[in-house]
Amino acid sequence: MMTRKELDLWVGIFAVVGIGAMLFLSLKVANLASFSSADSYQINAKFENIGGLKVRAPVKSAGVVVGRVGDIRFDNESFEAVVSMNIDSRFQFPKDSSAKILTSGLLGEQYIGITAGGDSVNLKGGDTLKLTQSAVVLENLIGQFLYNKAAEGDGKK
Amino acid sequence: MTERVAELLRALGARIVNSWIWRLGFACRFLWLTLKESGPSFRRFHLTIREIYFAGVLSLVIVLVSGLFVGMVLGLQGYDTLVRYGSSDALGVLVSLSLVRELGPVVAGLLFASRAGSAITAEIGLMKATEQLSAMEMMAVDPIARVVAPRFWAGVISMPVLAALFSAMGVFGGYLVGVRLIGVDEGSFWSQMQAAVDFRQDILNGFLKSFVFGVAVTWIAVFEGYDAPPTAEGVSGATTRTVVTSSLAILALDFVLTALMFRGL
């Protein structure tokens, strides 16, 4: 039979190893430290077509994650999609910045890319981005390509 | 003829009522008693420490080794599938998400049920068979407070720790096979994993799962031990039932929890 001291030692080791595993999971696997949504402001953007964009998709500027998509709604007056983005308050963008829906890799997830403009006034919470570019829909792309090819063929004749 | 049928139905009903409904009710009342009498297991925490040693520390080896191997197999199999789509960089995502969300809590729970749950049942069942529990009652020591509650809380505390260790070990195993052995790029292995795994959505939900499994497994284990017929046969039957029932409970609960957590039903 073990003494109480030995038992305590082993259970202490067990607890330390367990806490270590949880820290490893939350810091190294989930990267908790890098981005917290605690301090953020919301901006909106209207898109004709959002493609496969999902809530919680990253918002990037120059490839760096600056926020996440908070909400996606359908505006029944303009028949466009309204995407709300929560941007980390550490990052400020000029008022005339533009938003695009991009795809990471060929089959990757879709995200919003923000390109900074040149205005001296920065965006505030609740503002709406004026310049947007919709997601590239593969069918439209193929359609356009075929149309161009056909037009080229006509030109040659 | 009708009498025969009626008798058959009566026997069936009695069986269902006695072995299912009655036991379920007793199990619920037993859980309530255990929770009510758990004061001493925290006031005299060394009681619980001793049980954490038996349920948690002694399960470390099996959980760590299985976690490592499960992670390594995930690394091999995942690479084999992902490389066909040219996205072997996503290996870290595959390994970590499957471990943290599902395999960590579930496999650690199954191992915990067979390693620690069966031991708890056998111990309590044997204490009952050798009339140690009655002797305690005779000395005005409540066996639920002294024997059952510390084991229950030790299991509930140990299970999330073991599941976290299993997941961490599995991610390490996937890293060993994916990065060291096969040669997936180390940077994208970790960065894609960090981009895809969400703390609240994945890690906390996995932790919650393992906590629920811990409650279910130890509840079943202490109940089966306490309810075991006080014979050698009874104790062996109870031990088997613990492993079977808690494995089924883990898998069924896992479905319900996954549906609630990840589908937003």
Key phrases:
heterodimer; A: 157 residues; alpha/beta; eight-stranded mixed beta sheet; 29% helix; elongated; B: 265 residues; mainly alpha; 10 helices; 87% helix; globular
In short:
The complex is a heterodimer of chains A (157) and B (265). Chain A has helices at residues 4-29, 138-156; strands at 40-47, 58-61, 64-75, 80-88, 98-103, 110-115, 128-129, 131-133. With 157 residues, chain A is α/β, with parallel strands linked by helices.
Arrangement of strands in the largest sheet of chain A: 7-1-4-3-2-6-5-8
Our Rg estimate of chain B from Cα atoms comes to 22 Å
Low-pLDDT residue intervals, each spanning 5 or more residues of chain B: none
Poorly predicted runs of 5 or more residues of chain A: none
Which outline of chain A best applies?
elongated
Class by alpha and beta content of chain B: mainly alpha
Number of domains of chain B: 1
Counted by DSSP, the helix tally of chain B is 10
Descriptive report:
In chain A, strands 7-1-4-3-2-6-5-8 form an eight-stranded mixed sheet, with no helix packed on it. The longest helix of chain A is centred in the first third of the chain and has 26 residues, at 4-29. Chain A is an alpha/beta fold and 157 residues long. Chain A folds into two domains: 1-34; 40-142, no CATH class. Chain A is built from two helices and eight strands, in the order αββββββββα. The termini of chain A are far apart. Chain B is mainly α and 265 residues long. Chain B has one domain. Helix content of chain B is 87%, strand content 0%. In chain B, helix 5 runs antiparallel to helix 7 (143-182). Chain B is globular, with a radius of gyration of 22 Å. The model of chain B has no long low-confidence stretch (mean pLDDT 91). At the A-B interface, helix 1 of A face helix 3, helix 7, helix 8 and helix 9 of B.
